[in-house]
Amino acid sequence: MALHRLTLPALATAIALLPLPALAQQGGPPAQPPAKVRTATVEDRMMAPQIAVPGTIHSKQDADVAAEVAGRVLWVAEAGTRLQAGDVLARLDDRELQLQVQQLDAQVKSLLSQLEFQTKEANRLQQLAARDSAPVSRLEESQSKREVLAQDLVRMRAQRDRVALDIERATVRAPFAGQVASRMLEVGEYSAPGAKVARLVAVDQVEVRAQAPVALANQLREGMDVALEADGQQATGRVSRIIPVGEAQSRTFEVRVALPEGRWIVGAAVRVSLPSAAPQQVVAVHRDALVMRGTGLSVFRVSGENKAERVTVRAGTTVGEWVEVLGEVKPGDKVVVRGAERLREGQAVDTDPKVS
């Protein structure tokens, strides 16, 4: 059909007969689908004001392992090597010690031979003395020589065993399971007794050591949970030790906190939140429920009709992932913790637990 040949009235009639778009048929914009969100429940919780103190991650076992004998270093485990208790950490040259053992073995055999002969001689003289065929003084002299040889044999065996023990010590072994942090002697260097060979750290047995003000002593107890922050990551630890010995200058004492499982770096800095007053019952929400906009701090509460209600709040005490809130929210309310960034007042929501 040639559209340009139609008259204007006919063109208007043709347009009027075309199907109306969905927008016109509905008489307005299409309804916006419900926003998918995840919610959490407002809770009554016992919380206390917190003060953050600096701490450092330490290993419970951190040792500079030393050699117990002298010798040239033949091998040392590389830094970063993981070892179990008893694994070889370093080896020293023990050839001179092996020669000493051979020499002492020969002396022990010589003494055994002399002792055997002297024992037979003493027995023979004892028989002769019983028949008055040999003087008693000669028997006593033979018995004395036998006793001296027996004691010499004990000393020589002890000396040989001591050198054998040194040979065992020439192989330096890990006293506990850990990771080699650094080598302090290199292959070819000479080690003296007591010289540090390598630093071994039990990287899987770590804790936080923090210095807390003495004024907090009455608020702390072993076994209580405390919030931790390391490199922007939040975690919860448990107070394992309180060492009630204060520093005279800083007026602080040491608190040790057990860390949850995870990858922790020995020596890393940690912020430890400790209670500064007795805990009180407060209304609290998960920290992800708080929304900061130009008009202030708020949360989105989900109504019975699954509509978003924006409620202005003020934040109070923070403990770990929970924040005290002051405002028109009460325990049991459902507040949005995922998907609140684009919500609007009155918008329908779909509480989908899979939202991340």
Question: Mind sketching the topology for me?
Answer:
Elements: H1 8-17, H2 22-26, E1 35-41, E2 43-47, E3 50-59, E4 62-66, E5 71-76, E6 82-83, E7 88-92, H3 95-130, H4 136-169, E8 171-173, E9 178-183, E10 190-191, E11 196-201, E12 206-213, E13 225-230, E14 233-243, E15 252-258, E16 269-275, E17 280-286, E18 291-293, E19 296-302, E20 308-319, E21 322-327, E22 334-338, E23 349-351
Parallel strand pairs: 1-23
Antiparallel strand pairs: 1-22, 2-17, 3-12, 3-16, 4-11, 5-7, 5-10, 6-9, 7-8, 9-11, 12-15, 13-14, 13-16, 14-15, 17-21, 18-19, 19-20, 20-21
Radius of gyration: 42 Å
CATH class of one domain: Mainly Beta
Through-space gap between termini = 56 Å
Mean pLDDT over all positions: 87
According to CATH, what is the topology of one domain?
conserved putative lor/sdh protein from methanococcus maripaludis s2 fold
- What proportion of the residues is helical, as a percent range? 10-25%
Number of strands: 23
How would you sum up this structure, described in words?
The chain contains four helices and 23 strands. With 356 residues, the chain is an alpha+beta fold. Among the domains are: 35-47 and 280-351, Beta Barrel (conserved putative lor/sdh protein from methanococcus maripaludis s2 fold); 51-60 and 203-275, Elongation Factor Tu (Ef-tu), domain 3 (Beta Barrel); 92-170. The chain has a six-stranded antiparallel β-sheet with strand order 2-17-21-20-19-18, with no helix packed on it. A hairpin with a 5-residue loop joins β19 and β20 (308-319). α3 (95-130) runs antiparallel to α4. The longest helix is centred in the first third of the chain and has 36 residues, at 95-130. The chain is elongated, with a radius of gyration of 42 Å. The two termini are 56 Å apart. Mean pLDDT is 87; it is low at 1-6, 11-18 and 20-28. Residues 284-350 form the YknX-like C-terminal permuted SH3-like domain.
